[in-house]
Structure formats: C-alpha cells, structure tokens
C-alpha cells in the first residue's frame, strides 16, 4: 500500500530537497518538521552501496539546537546525564537527554564548537523547546535557537576516500566524533567523523542553506570514482548495527524508556554533576531496571517492516515490546529490536512477536547483530 | 511532482488510520509525529462538502497534552498570556503559548476538564516537552503527559444535524468551544463544539484508541442522510477564513512571530496574571510591533500552493513574508497569508510576492477573506 506525501507549507524543505529530487528521490518521511528522503527507488542497491561503497544522504532534518553564550556548556551539562567535563572543543559526543522523570526525550550528538557554543544534533523531537525552557527557568545566560545548519552524510567504507578527496588526507586521522570548521571554496561547513550507520563516514554540516545544491553536486562529483550515489538512513543496517532510533525504539509519549533500559547505562554519570533527571535515575538505578534492550530474529517468511510497536510474548503473557523489524540481507533473516522484562534470558524459548498478520516465533539475539 | 510517503516505525499511526485507508485516503502529511490524511482523491468535492455539507476528518494528530494534579490550572495559566480566570469546567479556549522571548511556540485549544485536569489540544510542536519542563522547574504538583485521546472532526453546515443525530438535540445549544464528557455506547469521548474551520462543527475526542474504527463507522453511518464523506483540514478554507496554521504561518525555528504580530493581541493580558514571556511581551507592546498579519490576492494565473515562505516586496525591497497560498474557489482567486511591515497599508500599490517561478503582483486584503 503506497500513499502520496502532501508537500505543503507546514513542513520544511531541506537545503538539499531540490538536489534529491533531481537525483530521483521516490519517498519522503518527515523528521523534525522537515521532509527527509526515504529511498531513491532501489532499496537493495542503496543497502549495498552503504555496505560496500559510499552513499550520500540528505540528513538536514537532523536539526541543530545551538546553545550560545557564557552558560552554553553549563546548560549542555545540565541537560545530559553523560559527563562532559573531559570534552574538548572540536570533539562531539553521543548523549542521552532525559526529562525530570529520567525518561529519554532525545539522543543527540553534542558538538562542542567553543567554550560558549554547543550544538545538539537532534533526533526527532523539539529539543529546542526543552533546552530553551530549562535555560530560561534556571536564569542561564544562553540563547537557544536553531541555526541555518544542514547536515549531509557520506557513509560507507569508501566515505573516507571521498572525504580525503574533498578535504585532504588529514581527514584520515580524525577520531570518531571529531570535527573541524572548514569550507569548500565559499561553502562554509563543519566536517565531522560521524553518521547514523556503523559503516563509517562523515557528516558535512552545511552552514548556509542557500548552498545546499552546490554542496550536494560538489560531493557527488568528488565521489564519482567510488560510485557514490544517493541513499538515506537504512532501517536494515541500523537494526543490524543496533543503533537507537528515537521515535521508533522509544518516544516519551508512546514508548517511554530510561537510559538504563536502552543500554545507555554507561553514559549515566550519577555522581559527577547535576543534571535533569538525576534523582529519578538514581531511584531507578537503586531499584534495578525492569526491562532491557534486545535484538531478536523473527522466524518464518521475511518481515520487511513494522509500522507500530507490538507485543513480545511468552505464551499468552506480554513480556516486552517490539519496536522495529527489517529484513537483513547480510543475515538472510528478519531481525528486530525491542525491550523485554529483565527476567527473560537470551536463551528463553516460547517467545513470539504479535505481528498484525499473526504471531510469529522469535529468538533473542545480543546486540549488535553485526 | 508527487512522492510516496514512507510508512515506518518512527511516525505514529492515528487511531483512525485503517478507517481512512478503507475510505480511500490518497495522501498523508505528518503532524506531531503522526500521519494525518491530506486528501481522498477529490479535492474539489472535499472543499464543497466542507462548505455545503459535512466532512469527517481524522485529526488525531492534534494530540492532547494533559496537565493533571493540584497545580494543573496554575500551570496552564502560566503557559499562556490569555487570562483564564473566568474559564469554567466544560469550556475550551483558544490560547497562544509563548516562550520567554514572547515568540509563539504553539496555539492550542485549552479544555478545562476539571479543577485539576486540563488538556491542551496542540498544533504541530512538542508542547509536552515545554510544559513538562516548566512544570518541573517551577516545582508544580502536576503531571504532564500525552493521554490516549484521538480527535475526529465533523465540519460543515450539516455537522450540527449529524451531531444531533448521534448525541441528541441538546448539542444544538452548546456554545462555541463548550464540551461534555460523554459516550456512544461503550465508546468514551469528549464532544466539543469546535474545529479547525469556520464552517461550524464538532470535535469528538475519542478516549480509547482501540475504538477508532468503531467510532469512525458510527459517525459515518449517522451522517449518511447528509452525505457525510471523508476529508481533511482544508488549505483553501483555512486561508479564506484567516485561521492560523502554526508551522506554516509561524514557527519558532523558521518564522518566529509574537502574538501581537499574529493578530492575537486581544488574547494577551499583560496585567492580569504572571505568564511565561510577559516581560518580553510588555517590552514589545511598549515599543510597538514591527509587522502585522495580512491576507493578499495574487494576480495572474492560479497559484495552488506554497511550499516554503517567500518574500513580499515593494519594488526591490523586502517588506514582509508570504507564508501560505491557495486557490479559493469561492473567490475565484489565488489568496495568501503573511506578515508585512506595519508601514505598509492595505491600499499600497507596487507589492509583489517572490514566487519560485517568478514575481507576481499582489494586493493586500483584510482578514478574514470570507
């Protein structure tokens, strides 16, 4: 069943929108109130390119929340359980952000651009509202706004070569999540060694939306020797890699979850600093968590997606929730992500997933799958 | 140019999703992280039904932010410049919500369900994050969550007859924005005389998402004598009526605007109570506003939509912004909404709108058009 997407004034277009249309984009979703490409008509080819070559993604919908001013770093630290005291300028870090009850409300990559400027490269929720409310209520000297910044990703084993062709061989020495402010001719951008896949690559944070098409074409041209082509964040690869999708795997309104359940426990630093949700997370840590994040294989004919969370069961009893499923070409299997009660072991039998078309046996698997 | 919408795990399905698919929905957009129908393949017929009959809309994406607890009403009042002191249980009110700088961040209908329970029926932004942050930071005794509530609208001149057939003739006496908690057999709901059109009608706030299809069919059956049919919030009618679309006409990140500029000045009560943004709005009121909300006619061949804001100009000078345009069948004209500098008068000549396909003459018009 396919439906058209309504292109209207209430959803924003990416700086790369026209470029992706010219490259044959076939489907969009909406993320942070912005259209984001879904696929370009060749899902298998796009998966292969990500795993074996290099893919070019419009991820401008990964908006930046900029904290600017003397208290920028203090606000950033207050927003996350993760200890930022050792974070240097030019380095990013993946951070959970929690509400006062300890539930995750976003999981951005935080980029420390200066001692008074921080970006949160956010997943799909209005974190700018949260950060602005906290900053103002605490009386911090900080502005919270969304700057004109549009990330593009190049991902895959050949992304390093493309980045080196564009920026020079020094990029090969960049550590994961390191970034630099730079430019391609007159196109200002931040180059970061990051991206929402486990295949390696870079994100180019374009800092002038008017130059989206110019940057897209420039990257495309540089990538030709490695057969670069368009793509988008890939459901199969992200489940294989065990990456979290805020909005699918948890969402405050639908599937509330705390960072311990989500496997982010090592990022929660209860004793090093004050942060929103600390007392709630301390209580949760003391009581012990009730659920844990798991992967699972679905037996039987291929399952290519999951459109809404469904129950994981043992016999007739709900013991968890399945939040996403995709077909893995590399594993030749249907694989999924979810949360189960901590009493359920990896080797437990008799588990099923309550798909809309009927229940299917599942067996749990450690993450990542690959 | 048409594109498919990606149906995936990271966007929620409405309680009426399956019902609208069965009724032939052809396009969706995404609103509050949920699919919302765009049209059902007959835009002219759907416009006509809204104006002359009765239309049935899935507006479940208009999510509720529930404030519950002893401080619910106090938090609601803190969130809006509009004075709520005279608001009684069973009555709703359209309210701007502003950030600390006085910029509008949402424009929900507020429903006072009890002295300790309030719903904010929100436009497209994560107001639950804002409200939760403010409530917790102020130490209020209130929970902020999104309950299982899914609004459906019946709109148009025959909506009153359909509501009377469903609930009884007493609904004819309900005042605008009045509501009652009621049920249709075992389907619990709040019935409100409201809706995002100027054609009159009701919203049925279903309080059990599992009964979406049952309610949809029940309303459809009751509406048959008046030829009820599916539809969706209508761009043409909303512009004709001068209704604000948060996300199109303003959005904190893209087109920030304060309530005075947006024509909501009468809802700002600077002296009656404390609220977020009061000192900023007082400064703005003292200084005088720089822009005002306007309608405009676009001359020349029909313009059927606007996909991103564009400049309004006098000669070569930008004097404002156009935020949406649609074709009005009733006016036989292309009409739009936007903001212009206060120095620009309704009768000023030489104004143009910088459409992507080229500039067009416009003339301003008072709101509403109809």
Describe this entry's structure for a reader.
The structure is a homodimer of 370-residue chains. Chain A has 370 residues and is α+β, with helices and mostly antiparallel strands. Chain A has helices at residues 17-22, 43-52, 72-79, 127-137, 159-167, 212-223, 235-240, 278-287, and strands at residues 4-5, 27-31, 34-39, 55-58, 64-68, 92-94, 97-98, 104-106, 109-114, 117-121, 143-145, 150-155, 179-184, 187-192, 201-206, 229-231, 291-298, 310-314, 317-328, 333-341, 351-355, 358-365. In chain A, the strands form five sheets. The first copy, chain A, has a six-stranded mixed beta sheet, sandwiched between helices. Chain A has a six-stranded antiparallel beta barrel with strand order 17-20-19-18-21-22. The radius of gyration of chain A is 21 Å and the shape is globular. The interface between A and B is large, with 58 and 58 residues. Chains A, B: Residues 291-369 form the Aminomethyltransferase C-terminal domain. Chains A, B: Substrate binds at residue 203.
Total separate domains of chain A: 3
**Percent range of helical residues of chain A:** 10-25%
Number of helices of chain A: 8
Q: Which term fits the overall shape of chain A? A: globular
Distance between the termini of chain A: 31 Å
Protein name (chains A, B): Glycine cleavage system protein T
Pfam family, one (chains A, B): GCV_T_C
Domain GCVT N-terminal (chains A, B): 18-271
InterPro entries (chains A, B): GcvT/YgfZ/DmdA, GcvT/YgfZ_C, GcvT_C, GCVT_N, TrmE/GcvT-like
């Amino acid at each position: 069943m396919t439906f058209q997407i309504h292109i209207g004034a209430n959803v924003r277009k990416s700086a790369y929108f026209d470029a992706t249309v010219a490259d044959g984009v076939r489907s969009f979703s909406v993320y942070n109130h912005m259209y984001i490409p879904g696929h370009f008509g060749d899902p298998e080819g796009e998966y292969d390119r990500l795993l074996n070559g290099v893919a070019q993604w419009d991820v401008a919908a990964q908006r930046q929340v900029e904290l600017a001013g003397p208290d920028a770093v203090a606000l950033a630290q207050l927003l996350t359980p993760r200890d930022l005291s050792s974070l240097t300028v030019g380095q990013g870090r993946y951070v959970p952000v929690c509400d006062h009850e300890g539930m995750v409300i976003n999981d951005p990559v935080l980029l420390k651009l200066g001692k008074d400027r921080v970006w949160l490269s956010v997943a799909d929720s209005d974190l700018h509202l949260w950060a602005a409310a906290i900053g103002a209520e605490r009386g911090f000297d900080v502005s919270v706004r969304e700057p004109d910044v549009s990330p593009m990703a190049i991902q895959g084993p050949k992304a390093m070569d493309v980045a080196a062709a564009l920026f020079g061989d020094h990029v090969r020495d960049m550590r994961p999540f390191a970034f630099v402010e730079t430019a391609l001719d007159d196109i200002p951008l931040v180059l970061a060694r990051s991206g929402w896949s486990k295949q390696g690559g870079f994100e180019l944070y374009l800092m002038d939306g008017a130059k989206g098409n110019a940057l897209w074409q420039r990257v495309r041209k540089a990538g030709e020797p490695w057969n670069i082509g368009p793509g988008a964040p890939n459901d199969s690869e992200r489940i294989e890699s065990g990456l979290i999708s805020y909005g699918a795997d948890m969402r405050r309104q639908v599937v509330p979850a705390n960072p311990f359940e989500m496997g982010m426990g090592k990022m929660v630093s209860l004793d090093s600093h004050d942060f929103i949700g600390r007392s709630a997370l301390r209580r949760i840590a003391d009581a012990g968590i009730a659920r844990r994040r798991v992967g699972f294989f679905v037996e039987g004919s291929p399952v290519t997606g999951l459109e809404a969370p469904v129950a994981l069961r043992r016999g007739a009893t709900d013991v968890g929730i399945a939040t996403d499923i995709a077909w893995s070409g590399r594993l030749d299997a249907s694989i999924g992500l979810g949360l189960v009660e901590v009493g359920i072991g990896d080797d437990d039998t008799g588990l099923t997933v309550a798909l809309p078309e009927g229940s299917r046996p599942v067996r749990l698997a450690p993450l990542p799958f690959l």
